[in-house]
Design a protein that fits this description.
The relative contact order is 0.07. The protein contains four helices and no strands. Helix 3 packs antiparallel against helix 4. It has a domain at 46-108. It starts with a helix and ends in a 19-residue tail after the last helix. The longest helix is centred in the middle third of the chain and has 35 residues, at 46-80. The chain is mainly α.
Length: 127
């Protein structure tokens, strides 16, 4: 019983592909080409959803930094008995960590350069 199954597996591996395997190979090839060209979204909602995902990630990073810092500060206060100081110090450190994470995310983005502002200084024209 097992020898027949291994015989079929060996037959498929030796290059004698069934139509479904060829079809799978073609679909994988097309999917890889789409992925390399950046066309996986398939519609006009792609950039909008990408921006929404970035906004959620930035918000979560900021809130997570503050929450983790505040939690560590609260637990430090319970453990050491330094009622507000551990919370305040770690709240500030967590906020700084959250802001640093947001800065790292935004600095990794590739934004196009801003257009040049037109010169609105009309003082020279009046002379």
């Amino acid at each position: 019983m097992l020898s027949g199954a291994s015989h079929d597996a060996g037959k498929a591996m030796s290059g004698d592909e069934t139509p479904s395997l060829r079809d799978l190979g073609e679909r994988l090839k097309r999917a890889r080409e789409r992925e390399q060209s950046g066309g996986l979204s398939g519609g006009s909602a792609g950039p909008k959803l990408k921006g929404l995902g970035l906004a959620f990630r930035v918000g979560v990073e900021l809130v997570a930094g503050v929450a983790v810092g505040a939690g560590i500060g609260y637990l430090t206060d319970l453990w050491l008995g330094t009622k507000p100081w551990g919370f305040l110090i770690f709240f500030v450190l967590g906020s700084a960590a959250g802001i640093l994470n947001v800065y790292r995310i935004m600095s990794a983005m590739k934004f196009p350069p801003a257009p040049a502002m037109p010169d609105t200084n009309d003082d020279e024209d009046d002379e």
